Amino acid sequence: MTRHLRVDGPNHDDRLDHMAQGVIGQPLNRLEGPLKVAGRATYAAEARPRNLAYGVLVQAAIPAGKVLEIGDAPGALAVIRDKRMVRFAAQGMARKAPKSGPDGIDYMGQAIALVVADTFEAARHAAQNLSVRYAREDVPVNPEDVTPELPPKKQSKTGDLDKAMQEAAFSVDQVWHTPSQMAAAMEPHAAIAEWDGDRVTIRAGLQMLSSNKEQMADALGIRPDKLRLLAPYVGGGFGSKLGINAESVAAAIAAQKLGRPVQVSMTRQQVFDLAHRRSETRQRIRLACDADGTLTGLGHEALVSNLPDDGFSEPVTQATPFTYQAAHRQVVHAIARIHRSCAGSVRAPGEAVGVTVFECAMDELAEAAGIDPVDLRLRNIPEAEPVTGRPFSSHKLTEALQEGAKLFGWSDRRPAKERLEGEWYIGIGMASAVRVNQLVESRARVTLVQDGSAIVETDMTDIGTGTYTILGQLAAEMLGLPADRVEVKLGDTQFPPAAGSGGSFGAASSGNSVFLACEEIRRQIAKAIGCDEGDLTLQDGMARAGNVSKSLSEVVEGTITGEGHLEPGKTEKSHRQATWGSHWAEVAVNRWTGEVRVRRMMGVFACGRVLNEKTARSQCLGGMTFGIGIALTEAMEHDRRDGHAVSRDLAEYHIPCHADVPPLEVHFLQERDAYVGPLQAKGLGELGICGAGAAVLNAIYNACGVRVRELPATPDKIIAGLDP
Amino acid sequence: MQITLNLNGTSHHLDVDPRTTLLDALRHHLGLTGTKKGCDHGQCGSCTVLMDGRRVNACLTLACMVEDRDITTIEGIGTPGHLSPLQQQFLDHDGFQCGYCTPGQICSAAGMLEEIAAGWPSHASESLDGPFELSHAEIAERMSGNLCRCAAYTNIVAAIRQAAQGDNRREDAA
């Protein structure tokens, strides 16, 4: 039986608080942890089928045009050129394959062929030596070289911002730039495809199997029921594995043509070219306030880029409409159509760079107005969503700011450039954290076995987020079992289709489906012992109601299976849903070299119910560290002549390393959001990045008095602003 | 070409292309996929293994060059049912998320603790002569060749510190 729920209204039942097992929320170790620390968890390229052949992708060396001719590949089994091969990755949750056809070239680095050989070494050699003749077209590759699109639906205006700026007691009007950024998950994209008659199994690094299945079936021109996708372990995603990409499609085509299994792994450089980049942004922020720091106007104008016709554009201003109040408001969203690699979702699309820049602007306004940055924010938190008047499902920004200020020691802050220790300026900075929240349709199946164990099955993925563990904890809590009695099976399209991992909606969406499946099982147990489900207590393998107490082995004959099906509903529109927090950083800036060291960093977060304190904290650590990268080191530079990514590996694109990250501190605020389903949990994977970089950049200003508006704040830019 | 690898205490005879790296020999030829390929260029540390007890990037090492060496991979450090103290601390401290860089982090940590024991200083060391305090800065500096995009860094340092201190306590008790 399937228990279905559409989230059309609030849920104040706090059911999980009233269960007896007491495992939900506990900081349990990861269920799959022993496999991971022992190197036994098998990722995309780690199945070893017999007779496996190896494929290496060949990339276009021109920014746009056509392939005219491709030479021979001595030593290779085949050079695969097939009109089904895709030119770039599918966007997250797309239902169709991305643009295909390797003869046409849309950007430099696009995959145009696959060379397959018996060994990886032979395939690589042949791929590197393949001769290709092109017809090159001239195309724009720099965002400022074209007239951008201004889609009417993405623009908004309330009141008269120009007038508010003229009449303001204090104002800010500045322009910031953020470069292209990459997810750079540690596992490069890879796939192993194997056909059995007209059926194909593809093992790949993918975040969202249910939509990936539709994309892949469309790409290959087969029925979805002929396709099985496997992604039991995914070595990081951060958006880069939301949609199918060139390697998995090419592996499937090659395996079909050669009649043997084929593995295709991207090189690290190919990952930088072929996975979605976060678009570079140009952001103009205008802020106007009166003498006491009440915002009267705010404007956020963003210019982003993508390939012609692609539906995705970095939603830079996503949180701007509801974070702060102001009567006069304007949002501009402009899209430059250029031929750099495809832009798409990278961890917290929109807020990661949008909130970061906006929070830098707020710091500048606080400075201009002579108001404490925390106070400025506290004074401008709206009662309801501005303009629409929609209520918030829950609002924790005030508490996050006040609690953070106390925990971090904000009252010790001194004016800019006042603290000098040896050759290091010391400063502290802060920023608000905000990220939209959503649910996505998700299904799961739970089976309770007579011996007091349970199995959870869903095609949900665990990309490092802790899904295995939290779904196991949920089932254990709801069914009254020790956590180690629950087995969780994920990452296989033979299981019920789930939301997938993306947009911070994975835990809440798939968690609610497991919750519903367990409610169905509880109902069947209650029926068997003759009580209402609400009166049933399940704990340590025992079922109790009134003065009846039975072990599950007495109640369950064989197995009881329940399915859960969650759909978002009216609360999506009726309430503004978001997660909230605050970021705090202390930095040291070298007065001679401009080097920045983050000495201390703390985040305070509210994300509804915390399902596992340990894995939740780790999500926040990861987000905050991405923030350090955005602030200080990460930039994928493009060649201005042909648009290709210049800094396209881990030696050139600098993600934070051990020595860049001090011991980070994370605090959670207690919250139960009633409008996000019975779990009362919201997303967490992205909140930690939203605004984190601004805390670092604002701390740099507080330390040395330099504002860097061209991110990242590398030493050259800081030196340029320091006194000689 | 025919080669013999001394791996986790066992000899393996392989027929490999001379261009085969130690990393690909492990993953493609021996099916030992615990050692990970993150960049194939010595930039990320995911492929870190121990060679005669010292950490090396398996992606920058040709298989045919290491015939007379003892190689230890993550599979030789512990199994899911019998984790080494270091692996157990990574598990307890959540010193990983996706788990892909983890075998490299653990092999690197094992080698790094030996380097400290042998008296090798680092950029973060107070003096060149030691002894070296296992401070956050000391561990972070020595582990900076192992990237973790999930950014479990805070937890990894805590795990290594705890494992090292646990070892010390055992030595004290002995």
From TrEMBL, chain A:
UniProt-listed SUPFAM superfamilies: CO dehydrogenase molybdoprotein N-domain-like (SSF54665), Molybdenum cofactor-binding domain (SSF56003)
Domain Aldehyde oxidase/xanthine dehydrogenase a/b hammerhead: 38-138
InterPro entries tied to this protein: Ald_Oxase/Xan_DH_a/b, Ald_Oxase/Xan_DH_a/b_sf, Ald_Oxase/xanthine_DH-like, AldOxase/xan_DH_MoCoBD1, AldOxase/xan_DH_MoCoBD2, AldOxase/xan_DH_Mopterin-bd_sf
Official protein name in the record: Xanthine dehydrogenase family protein molybdopterin-binding subunit
Taxonomic classification: Bacteria, Pseudomonadati, Pseudomonadota, Alphaproteobacteria, Rhodobacterales
UniProtKB/TrEMBL annotation, chain B:
Transmembrane segments: none
Pfam families the record matches: Fer2, Fer2_2
Keywords: Iron, Metal-binding, Oxidoreductase
Signal peptide range in chain numbering: none
Occurrences of domain 2Fe-2S ferredoxin-type (ranges): 1-77
Domain of life, per lineage: Bacteria
PANTHER family named in the record: OXIDOREDUCTASE, IRON-SULPHUR BINDING SUBUNIT-RELATED-RELATED
Name assigned to this protein: 2Fe-2S iron-sulfur cluster-binding protein
Natural source organism: Paracoccus fontiphilus
